[in-house]
């Protein structure tokens, strides 16, 4: 059966993107850096979570951020207040970051800072519940966020994001008393898509669940460092 032109084009784009992502990951591995790709729909709380994370881990880890947005540097400016390197990437009409864009961010970062001094690079992807999950950027783990205001059905309606996630943060839990929301139903829907994903309910406002999130981040760094050392032996 012949592929349509559009299907063939999509396969070629994903293949080229994957090659670029693998190249980015090689750079990160050479420098001893772990990279996390944060993904969610607009307004789920990625930047607020990063603010709390940068503030808490600033004295424990050397971090940088590659901040993706369609226009403006509003989120990048929020994160620069935490005294970490922040590289802003405006994607224009594109609804996601791809490996080529992140490669450009890596080169900007390397021109200004010694990457060997960094432990962790955060990639905050463009707010979109579909496209970011399909385009790897060189990350070692994907972190998805879903706010409780979005409803329990989103994992079933937009499965790719949740199938690809290594960790899912259920955000804005402080609003639960004011919403008709079923946490167990949401978790069940997520587990149908991805039975192995780590799920952490959090609130950046009240800091509920953030200690568990910080522990997950640090454990991932340890695991990735062990894998990198094993691969180089």
UniProtKB/TrEMBL annotation:
Swiss-Prot/TrEMBL GO biological process terms: protein maturation
Listed GO MF terms: GTP binding; GTPase activity; nickel cation binding; zinc ion binding
Gene3D superfamilies: P-loop containing nucleotide triphosphate hydrolases (3.40.50.300)
Keywords tagged on the record: GTP-binding, Hydrolase, Metal-binding, Nickel, Nucleotide-binding, Zinc
InterPro entries: CobW/HypB/UreG_nucleotide-bd, Hyd_mat_HypB, P-loop_NTPase
Ranges where the CobW/HypB/UreG nucleotide-binding domain occurs: 37-200
Record Pfam families: cobW
Classification via NCBIfam families: hypB
UniProt record similarity statement: Belongs to the SIMIBI class G3E GTPase family. HypB/HupM subfamily.
Protein name, entry field: Hydrogenase accessory protein HypB
UniProt source species: Cyanobacterium stanieri (strain ATCC 29140 / PCC 7202)
């Amino acid at each position: 059966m012949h592929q349509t032109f559009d299907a063939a084009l999509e396969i070629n784009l994903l293949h080229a993107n994957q090659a670029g992502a693998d190249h980015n990951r090689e750079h990160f591995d050479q420098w001893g850096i772990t990279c996390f790709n944060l993904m969610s729909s607009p307004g789920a709380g990625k930047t607020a979570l990063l603010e709390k994370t940068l503030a808490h881990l600033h004295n424990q880890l050397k971090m940088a951020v590659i901040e993706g947005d369609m226009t403006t540097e509003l989120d990048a400016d929020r994160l620069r207040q935490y005294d970490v390197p922040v590289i802003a990437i405006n994607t224009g009409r594109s609804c996601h970051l791809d490996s080529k864009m992140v490669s450009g961010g890596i080169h900007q970062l390397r021109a200004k800072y010694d990457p060997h001094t960094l432990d962790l690079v955060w990639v905050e992807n463009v707010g979109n519940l579909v496209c970011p999950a399909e385009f790897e950027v060189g990350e070692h783990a994907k972190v998805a966020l879903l706010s409780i205001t979005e409803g329990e059905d989103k994992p079933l309606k937009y499965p790719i994001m949740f199938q690809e996630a290594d960790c899912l943060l259920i955000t804005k839990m402080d609003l639960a008393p004011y919403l008709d929301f079923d946490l167990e139903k949401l978790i069940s829907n997520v587990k149908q898509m991805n039975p192995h994903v780590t799920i952490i309910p959090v609130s950046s406002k009240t800091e509920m669940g953030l200690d568990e999130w910080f522990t997950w981040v640090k454990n991932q760094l340890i695991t990735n460092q062990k894998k990198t050392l094993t691969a180089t032996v």
